[in-house]
Amino acid sequence: MSNPETTAPDPLGHALLAYQQGQLSATLAVHSSVADEEVLPAAYFFRSLWEMPELERTALEQCHGRVLDLGAGAGCHALELQTRGFVVKSVDISPGAVAVMQQRGVREVACHDLFDPALAQGEKFDTLLMLMNGLGLVGTLAGLERFLHHAKSLLNPGGQILATSSDISYMYEDEDGALVFDLNGSYYGEVTYSMQYGTEQGAEFGWIFADPSLLQDYATAAGYEVEFLEEDEHQQYLVRLSLGF
Question: What's the rounded Cα separation, in Å, for the pair 60 and 62?
Answer without folding.
Answer: 5
